[in-house]
Amino acid sequence: MKKITLFFISLLTFCYGYAQDLVMTVSVPSGTTSCRLSGAFWGWDPAGGPVGVDNGNDTFTFTLSPAPGANMEYLYTINGSGVYEDLKDNAANSECTGRINSGNMVTDYSSYANRVWKTSDSLIWNEIYDDCSEATISNEVNSNYCSTEIFHLGLPAEVNSAVNLTIEKTSATTTKITVAASDITFLDIIGTPIAGGAATKSANDTSVSGEISTTLTWASTPPTDVVIQFIQWRKTSTGGATWQFNNATTPFEGVCGPAALPEEDTSLSDLQIDNVTISGFSSTTKDYTVELPDASSIPQVTLVTPTNTNATVGTITQASAVPGSATFNVTAENNVNVATYTINFIIPSPQVAAPTPPARNAADVVSIYSDAYAVIPAINLDQGWCGANAIAATTADGNAVLAYKNQACQGIDFDANRQDLTGFTHLHVDLFVKAGTDLVGKVFNIKTVPGTGAESVFPIDLNALNPQPVPGTWYSYDMPITFSGPTAATRQVGITSNLNNVVWYDNLYFHKNTTLAIKNFEIAGLNVYPNPAQDSWTVKTQNIKMSSIEVFDILGKNVISLKPETTEATINASQLKSGLYFAKINTANGSNSLKLVKQ
Question: Which residues form the Secretion system C-terminal sorting domain (predicted)?
Answer without folding.
Answer: 528-596
